[in-house]
Each structure stands twice: as structure tokens, then as C-alpha cells.
Design brief:
- By secondary structure, this protein is an alpha+beta fold.
- It has one helix spanning 5-31, and strands spanning 41-42, 58-61, 67-74, 77-79, 82-86, 90-97, 102-106, 112-115, 119-126, 131-136, 149-155.
- Bound molecules: dinuclear copper ion (CUA).
């Protein structure tokens, strides 16, 4: 088979780029311990009942008037499954998973976290409008994935 000179040059470019890309992914995954963005805080997924704050999932008002929501994702639902928070206040969601990778995506907001067992992911959001917000799982996690959801009731104070 005869290869034209330019064809050889472009083929080597292609192979070199492929090797560089795979090395970057390989090093970040196997050497640096690939983790989801934000999930720097670690937690033992098999022992969540004993580890604060995940031993008591729920909504907490903090001293500065903002709120914290502690939630656990598990096939196929969230604990707690329904919460209530006020409008206009900062709400920080701290979420982890008990079993497999899920997500915590609040419809109509920019909150969309990947929830990975062993890691704690968090995101802060202020609800400007009252109403019922749906949280869904965006990561395929098994046969009940499509039913995995929870609700946030945002109420005017
Ligand atoms: Cu949990 Cu999909």
C-alpha cells in the first residue's frame, strides 16, 4: 500500500494527538485519583448513619440566616424526599450517595451536581420564586432511575 507523504504526516498528527489525549485522561484518572468537581470532601458511603452531618439529613438554618440542606441519594430516591425552604435565602445543598453514582439536578435552576459515593458535593442556590421545585437524577443508576426524584417546596416567609 502506498501512502502519500502528506497522508503520512497527517496520520502521525492524528496518532500523536490521540496518545496525548489518552495520557492526560490516564494520568488524571489513575495517578491523581479522578474525582468529580467539587467532591473534594470525602466520606465513608457504608457508614453514613454514623457520620455527621449525614446522620441527620434535613434542612438546617445556620447562624447567619442562610440554610443548609443535607441529603443522601440512594437507589432510587433521596433522603429526605421532601423539604421546605424559604424564598430569597441562600440554600447550600450538601449531597452524597450511599451506593452508586447519581445526580442532584434541580429543574429550572443551574444546580446540577453529580453525586458520587465516597464524595460530598455541594452547591449554593437562592430561590427567588416560591413554588414546588423538582429534583431529578440525571445519571443512569439502575431500573428505578426514571422514578428517582424529590421535591422542594419554596415558600414566602
Ligand atoms: Cu439515581 Cu439515576
Amino acid at each position: 500500500m502506498h501512502l502519500h507523504k502528506y497522508e503520512k504526516i497527517w496520520l502521525s498528527f492524528g496518532f500523536a494527538a490521540l496518545i496525548i489525549f489518552l495520557s492526560v485522561v490516564g494520568v488524571s484518572a489513575f495517578h491523581q485519583g479522578h474525582a468529580p468537581s467539587g467532591g473534594l470532601q470525602k466520606v465513608d458511603p457504608d457508614n453514613l448513619e454514623a457520620i455527621p452531618p449525614f446522620d441527620k439529613p434535613g434542612v438546617y438554618e445556620k447562624e447567619d440566616g442562610s440554610y443548609e440542606v443535607i441529603a443522601i441519594a440512594e437507589a432510587f430516591g433521596y433522603t429526605p424526599s421532601e423539604i421546605q425552604v424559604p424564598t430569597g435565602e441562600e440554600v447550600t445543598f450538601k449531597v452524597t450517595s450511599k451506593d452508586v453514582t447519581h445526580s442532584f439536578s434541580i429543574v429550572d435552576t443551574n444546580v446540577n451536581m453529580m453525586v458520587v459515593p465516597g464524595h460530598v458535593n455541594e452547591k449554593t442556590h437562592t430561590f427567588e420564586e416560591s413554588g414546588t421545585y423538582l429534583i431529578v437524577c440525571n445519571e443512569y443508576c439502575g431500573s428505578g432511575h426514571h422514578f428517582m426524584s424529590m421535591e422542594i417546596e419554596v415558600v414566602d416567609q
